[in-house]
Amino acid sequence: MGRYLPEAWPLPSPDGLNRDYFSAGRLLVQQCTACGAVQHPPEEVCFRCQSFRFHNVESAGLGHVYSYIVAHYAVSPLLKESVPYGIALVQLDDYPDVRIVGNVLNLPPEALRIGLPVRVIFEAAADEETGDHLLVPQWEAVE
Ligand code: ZN
Description:
Blueprint: H1 19-23, E1 28-32, E2 38-39, E3 54-58, E4 62-71, E5 85-92, E6 99-102, E7 117-126, E8 133-141
This protein binds zinc ion.
Residues 32, 34-35, 37, 46, 48-49, 51 line the site of zinc ion.
């Protein structure tokens, strides 16, 4: 399966905070060890209690489209052949405080709608510059 956006489009640059999210092949979200709040994207500090202690919890990877846009204008020449494409904000069923931006890979952008049930899938990508092998969480519509 090719990537949703062109191969030349830059990949995420994982760091200590988000490397697990972009490479585990499971949908991991950050949970505060002190107060239990779950937040995304991973941050240094808990937005609820300001703790610095976290662990990952695994989501079942089911959710629904909370909101979306369809990009008709290519913000970069690299995206010229990709427009129109959809960008979805997915709210997780098991961690409803978490909303994750991504693409719904198996769906034409005009079929995106609020409330659409989706599940996570992982888009494999290798960054030749950094040597990173990523499994980027993306979405597919659930029939
Ligand atoms: Zn906390």
